[in-house]
Design a protein that fits this description.
The complex is a heterodimer of chains A (about 425) and B (about 180). Chain A has 17 helices and no strands. With about 425 residues, chain A is mostly helical. Chain A folds into 2 domains: about 1-130 and about 170-430, no CATH class; about 135-170, no CATH class. In chain A, helix 10 packs antiparallel against helix 11. Chain B is α+β, with helices and mostly antiparallel strands and about 180 residues long. In chain B, about 45% of the residues lie in helices and about 10% in strands. Chain B contains 5 helices and 4 strands. Chain B is elongated and about 80 Å long. Classes of the chains: A mainly alpha (about 425), B alpha+beta (about 180). At the A-B interface, helix 11 of A face helix 4 of B.
Chain lengths: ~425, ~180
């Protein structure tokens, strides 16, 4: 209180991506790679349950299927964090928010992962193909084949249109390319307008950014939902849930917000972002708290309706998970880490205003939502051959450290603060 | 002297002067009873040294009460009072209880919080508010000082402190 008059902050600050920081991230990367290597060797020698799979009439299990499933989990999870950074940036402009101005470039920096995420996603799709996505088998659409599946045949056009079902999933691949293409386009557009604003100043860039943010939000509303059906829900091809898009979005959003909060606290700890005080941290904490409850609301809405209506074609999704020795416990871990923990720990005002609570909770939430995606993807692809072992932990660490390297590398290229943003002064006086 | 009956009132007509005056008056050892202002003055509760409200604790406890009541009620009804099989589920099907538990938690938390606020702020419908100076509903900020609460200081001394802190008038006010 009573700090009237001009503040003098260093607006030309630039994040210095020091060799020491790089080295510690590389250490995590190497540890992850070693664990991943151990996991692969164990999977190759362990061999899974060949005989059982054979008896059940399914195909034999190969160790590389687990590798593909892991690639896919991390592709989807970290793509989410990257796009949510851009999404949260756009929200600030659509909502005409002033408090978050010094954090705008922190949010946007997560978008740096998007081009790589897109390449990895498309590559993994072509690499894994049948091993991840049951609907890619041509025989499902052949009426004369004994394994013809009328339900999947009915959904076939969603993947194959305008080509013949069972050939090349052009519609599916086109959507993937278009989504990533536009997301990267919008990310670059935001970066470009923000850089122009640094050079020229004035309010015109803010208005321009707001228009582009609005276009992006409309596109993201549609594309986030459809990408959830494509990349996650289509694994369990027979099954469907009408709120799945929102559910995946909520999981992405909480992960993204946690990542943004962690990066903010990290930068603050390094002495950057001087104008960020407890009030800004409090607001980030409120977002993490609120959207954790939002995630729970969607998770539970999906579960309760399926449980209550008790229609076999819907319940199969939860029966597969809850009755499994491998996945059953993780359902409760999922709810515990992603609902009870943030709900109880972040409920008080003090917890949201002090970095240490947020650091702990946000780190756990990142793991918790990774487990959420693990539960969405592994049961449908690996069945009882899945689980969390060396390979899962290793792959998560490898992806996590790569994303951190790319995001921090992108952040270091420009000034940390949008120094000519018209609402910068407002954010200095943010007080709640 | 009896407490809560005889007051010295400082009248201020500018909020910036008031904020500094509050700091000054408290700094010279005078205990302020209350400040009345026609509109919320940003930062006033801070300079007055008010403690943060404990209302969230009340909200949490009432919320917990709501959850407990809702779960007990549903469990008793569905398991003992009138057991029914619905949708092939067990009598006490826990997931079905969540929506009602959520609603009762929110209901009791908000009702409880409003009631506690009303009681602790003495906002009962039959409460007789004390008017220190009617101009505090128009264009003046009134700082009220309980004489009994400041027995260590002379009344004249307190008046002097108020004057020098920027009060345009200093009055006395007594209640029955």
């Amino acid at each position: 209180m009573a700090h009237h008059g001009e503040q003098h902050y260093n607006l030309e600050q630039r994040f210095d991506f020091t060799a020491a920081t790089k080295k510690s991230i590389m250490t995590v990367l190497v540890i992850g790679a070693i664990l991943l290597g151990i996991g692969i060797v164990l999977a190759m020698t362990g061999g899974g349950h060949h005989e059982e799979a054979g008896e059940a009439g399914g195909h034999a299990f190969h160790w590389y299927e687990r590798l593909y499933a892991n690639l896919w989990i991390n592709n989807v999870f970290f793509t989410g964090i990257a796009i949510v950074g851009v999404f949260f940036f756009a929200i600030q402009f659509a909502a005409q928010a002033g408090w978050s101005t010094p954090l705008l470039r922190v949010m946007l920096s997560f978008g740096n992962w998007l081009p790589i995420a897109g390449i990895l996603m498309i590559a993994t799709f072509f690499l894994a193909n049948h091993d991840l996505f049951h609907w890619t088998h041509a025989y499902l659409f052949d009426k004369n084949d004994p394994q013809y599946d009328s339900i999947i045949d009915g959904k076939g056009s969603f993947f194959y249109w305008p080509m013949e079902k069972g050939t090349f999933p052009i519609f599916y691949v086109a959507r993937m390319v278009i989504f990533f293409g536009f997301w990267v386009f919008f990310f670059n557009k935001f970066k470009q307008i923000s850089a122009q604003e640094d050079q020229l100043g004035g309010t015109s860039h803010w208005f321009k950014m707001r228009s582009w943010a609005a276009y992006f939000l409309v596109f993201f509303a549609v594309s986030s939902s459809i990408s959830a059906w494509d990349w996650v829900m289509s694994i369990d091809t027979h099954w469907f849930s009408t709120l799945f898009g929102w559910y995946v979005f909520a999981s992405w959003f909480v992960s993204g917000l946690s990542a943004i909060t962690l990066l903010t606290i990290f930068l603050k700890g390094k002495g950057y972002l001087e104008m960020i005080n407890q009030n800004h941290i409090h607001d980030l904490g409120k977002f993490v708290f609120g959207f954790s409850i939002f995630w729970t609301y969607l998770w539970f809405s999906q579960f309760l309706l399926i449980y209550y209506a008790n229609i076999p074609e819907e319940t199969v999704y939860f029966v597969e998970r809850l009755t499994s020795d491998v996945y059953g416990p993780f359902i409760f871990v999922n709810i515990g880490l992603n609902f009870f923990l943030p709900f109880l720990v972040l409920m008080t005002r003090d917890a949201k205003r002090h970095g240490i609570f947020l650091k702990v909770v946000c780190s756990i939430l990142l793991v918790g939502h990774w487990i959420d995606f693990f539960l969405m993807i592994q049961p449908g692809t690996l069945g009882h051959n899945g689980g969390i072992g060396f390979m899962e932990v290793g792959m998560f660490l490898v992806y996590g450290s790569l994303v951190t390297l790319v995001v921090l590398g992108g952040l270091a290229k420009k000034n940390l603060i949008a120094k000519n943003h018209p609402m910068l002064e407002e954010s200095y006086h943010h007080h709640i | 002297m009896e407490k809560d009956t005889h007051f010295i009132l400082g009248v201020y007509d500018d909020e910036d002067v008031l904020l500094h005056a509050v700091e000054e008056v408290r700094g010279s050892g005078v205990r302020i009873h209350e400040v009345y202002s026609p509109y919320p003055v940003h930062g006033l509760e801070h300079v007055l040294g008010y403690k943060r409200t404990r209302l969230p604790i009340a909200a949490f406890l009432f919320g917990m009460l709501g959850t407990t009541l809702a779960l007990t009620m549903q469990f008793y009804m569905m398991r003992f009072d009138w057991p029914m099989i619905i949708g092939g589920k067990d009598y006490a099907a826990f997931p079905d209880f969540i929506p009602v538990s959520f609603e009762l938690t929110v209901l009791l938390a908000s009702f409880g919080m409003v009631s506690v606020f009303m009681i602790s702020s003495n906002l009962k419908p039959w409460a007789q508010p004390r008017i220190f100076d009617v101009r505090s509903t128009d264009d003046k900020h009134i700082m009220a000082i309980d004489i009994a609460n400041n027995s260590a200081l002379e009344v004249e001394k307190i008046k002097e402190i108020l004057k020098s802190s920027g009060a345009t008038e200093v009055n006395k006010k007594s209640f029955e």
